[in-house]
Amino acid sequence: ITEDTKVITLNLGDINTTRLVPSGKGKVIFPANSNKISYEGDFLDGVMHGKGKFIWNDDSKYEGDYINGKK
């Protein structure tokens, strides 16, 4: 998640207190100048990890498993 990315909602399970990164379920809306629209799903230590749905601005979608930020 970059500094110009807007986190709309994040239901935190745990927060790594040394780095303050979220873990749990949440939704991220990406900046308008990005080719990405949103990601909704699981996070672990601030990255997409677990089940999630990603939508790009060309309406393509991926719904499935993420490991350390990669599908």
DSSP helix fraction: under 10%
* Beta-strand residue fraction: over 45%
User: What coarse outline follows from CA principal-axis ratios?
Assistant: globular
Distance between the termini: 16 Å
Number of helices: 0
Number of strands: 5
Give the class from helix and strand content and strand pairing.
Answer: mainly beta
Largest sheet: 5 strands, antiparallel
Measured on Cα atoms, how large is the radius of gyration?
A: 12 Å
**Mean pLDDT score, rounded?**
80
Oligomer: single chain
| Unreliable stretches | none
Strand order of the largest sheet: 1-2-3-4-5
Helix-strand pattern:
EEEEE
Tell me about this structure.
With 71 residues, the protein is an all-beta fold. The chain contains no helices and five strands. The protein has strands spanning 6-16, 21-29, 36-44, 47-56, 61-66. It has a five-stranded antiparallel sheet, with no helix packed on it. Strand 4 and strand 5 (61-66) form a beta hairpin. The protein is globular.
